[in-house]
Amino acid sequence: MYDLSKARQQVLAQIYQACETAQRNDESVTLLAVSKTHPSDAIHAMYTAGQRDFGENYLQEALTKIDTLKALDIAWHFIGHIQRNKTKAIAEHFSWVHGVDRFIIAERLSNQRPADLPALNVCIQVNIDQQESKDGCHPDDVMLLVDQIQALPQIHLRGLMVIPAPGHDQAFFDAEQLFKAVAARYPYLQMWDTLSMGMSGDLTPAIAAGSTMVRVGTALFGARDYSSS
Ligand SMILES: *Cc1c(COP(=O)(O)O)cnc(C)c1O
Fold first, then answer.
1. What secondary structure does DSSP assign to 39-58, as a single string?
2. pLDDT tens digits for range 133-149
3. Tens-digit pLDDT profile for residues 88-117
């Protein structure tokens, strides 16, 4: 049987090693387990192994799992593309949203966040290496978006999220530059602390460039099978 706990230990060891090489505190990087396409049982097993943050891309699939696992103390992160008509369900069921790249989406999330829940944690997705077919705002638009989004009452603006093209490690450093430039320009942003970047194949270079949250699927759960979905 595939040993999820062992897989998690190996990924954590890789994170610690990358932190050591980069002379960073190993507690400065959070492991986000990307559980899309994997069943609730696998998430439960990963939870038992100590994992608390889980990322999902597909809303319907995620809502089913969130309901099944509602007794567990899980922080759910929405990391997929956000359609306008999906913001209400996302605002109601998730703690974090990583893929915000337009003000209208952030505004809807803020308006639709239930008043009895803490503010929704949001990262702005940036198309850092300006790939043609990718989501994310243009790097030049980040400052304006920060300025607009930080004023929303039910949003905690936490940082940036990027998905560079494979092998394009320089983009991680570009993202870090932008992340620091925002911090310098908006020193009153209390919670600007998250640089969401790095996946199974590139978490080491992402951590070298300052990632504070790596989003890891395959290296934790094994290969994804999309045939049944
Ligand atoms: C699927 C996905 C991941 C995880 O990718 P792996 O290569 O399986 O680690 C990370 N981030 C986003 C946005 C994803 O969609």
1. -HHHHHHHHHTT--EEEES-
2. 789 999 999 999 999 99
3. 999 999 999 999 999 999 999 999 999 999
**Which pTM does this prediction carry?**
0.97
- Going from the Cα of 35 to the center of ligand 1, the distance in angstroms, rounded, reads 9
Residue 197 CB burial class (10 angstroms; 0-12, 13-18, ≥19): buried
**């696992």: which residue's tokens?**
69
Q: Domain 4-22+29-221 is in which class?
A: alpha beta
Q: Which residues approach ligand 1 with their CB closer than 6 A?
A: 34, 36, 57, 79, 163, 199-201, 215-219
- In this prediction, residue 1 carries a pLDDT of 63
Q: Which of 38, 79, 229 to mutate to test the pocket of ligand 1 (most atoms within 8 A of CB)?
A: 79
Q: Dig out the tokens for 74 from the structure.
A: 């899980």
| Atom 10, ligand 1: residue with shortest CA distance | 215
What whole-number distance in Å separates Cα of residue 33 and Cα of residue 50? Answer: 11
Of 54, 18, 21, the residue nearest 36 (C-alpha): 54
Report domain extents, the chain.
Answer: 4-22+29-221
To which residue do tokens 């759910």 refer?
76
Number of Cβ within 10 Å of residue 137's Cβ equals 19
Please, are residues 33 and 44 in contact by the beta-carbon 8 Å criterion?
A: no
Residue 104 CB-density burial (10 A; 0-12 exposed, 13-18 middle, 19+ buried): exposed
